[in-house]
Amino acid sequence: MERKFINVILLGFGFMFVFTAFQTMGNIEKTILDSIKQDDPSFTGDGYTSLAIIYATLAICNWMAPSVITITGPRGAMLIGAVTYLFFIVTFLFPRTWLLYLASVMIGAGAAAIWTGQGNYLTLNSDGETISRNSGVFWAMLQCSLFFGNLFVFIKFQGKSHIDLHTRNVVFGVLTGVCALGIVFLMLLRPARRNIDDNEMTMKEEGPMEAFRGAIRLFCTGDMMLLSAAFIYTGVELSFFSGVYSPSIGFTLAMGENAKQLVGLSGVFIGLGEVLGGALFGILGSKTTRWGRDPIVIMGYLIHMTSFFLIFINLPNLAPFGDTTDTSYITPSPYLAMLCSFLLGFGDACYNTQIYSILGGKYADNSTSAFALFKFTQSLAAAACFFYSSRAPLSVQLGVLAVLGTAGTAAFCRVEWAARSVARAAARAALAPLAPGEKPASRDVEDALHYD
Fold first, then answer.
1. CA 176 – CA 167 distance, rounded (Å)
2. Half-sphere exposure (CA, 13 Å, Cβ side) for 194?
3. CA separation for the pair 150, 268 (Å, rounded)
4. Cα(452)–Cα(444) distance, integer angstroms
5. 175 neighbors 25 (Cβ within 8 angstroms)
6. Residue pLDDT, tens place only, 122-148
7. Residue 406 CA neighbour count, 13 Å, CB half
8. pLDDT mean over 174-190
């Protein structure tokens, strides 16, 4: 196995274990904190507020992440970020309102470092032919975290309407150990070697201030502004499926006496969709870059619109706020709820694998800033969603998702189509002087012709 691909696999394992801990916590945080409040009236921490603080801090700190990486390098930034994830999980063993919000700020700052470092490191270990494959493989491994963590929660929450202290501590203790294992894998990452002869994508040598100014200049470009519409949508739908939808299922008492258990099972099905999507697009990565990324994004859009409609008719309007006996247009169905979880995960994989692909390909010479801007825009949108999630009924949240999904998909496709037009023009220019029957010298030129 080539050295670069081994680095991608190690990166995937590190993120899989770290985010098994964090994404599982994000999925159950609202449910868990409501149970803690019942046992300890002095605790006033709120799950939606905590998640909003995380993503707001992440959005702000993303502007500093490129500068940090010029000092620490991508591996150092990822290790620093992973330690803050470990601290966040540990604090749930000692529930204090002030500690919850302090840890939320810290993990938000750490997330900016770990995700910007990840995007740069993935690009350093990829080239034009492998970026889609590597993005798909990494995404599939990352989203295994949803499957394993939530399957564990599904088993532990079985038959419980209230999550007691012992159950909570067992869950938190296991997730702490899993997060620590992820840090070990990140410590095993090897440096991404520069090799200009192999056209390896490398990080520019620049100081912290130049990295910051470069990020601002990139953000103001037309293509990045358009892509930001897609980033915003992924942020809102991320916050919806990771922190709103699964708890809403658990709050729908008409689901039956095991409604709380379905919170973990929903996360499992979201993870199945994510893993299937990432694996599928990883295998077909070469086809994705050859024929365009827009068909996969449009497929994700149609899948998400279908799932939003099914959620609208299946869950009551007040489900995001707490336990309710209300029903919607049909009797709430656990089977339909799990189908929607799968569709949400698969559609999310459609968007994110193609965003990783276009950023790693189009901005290979400035990947640190490109991925920092992606996480900034996505996180700002996620924070906004968590702030209004505690006030907006389900129908309003689904309406916002539908509007942003339409705008984001259209913007992404416009950037992809513009890149396709440029590729066709470059291919024609390169082919013009060739003699009859002569083959193009570059595979990129040959692939560009398939856009016609």
1. 14
2. 6
3. 5
4. 14
5. yes
6. 878 877 667 767 777 787 788 777 777
7. 8
8. 91
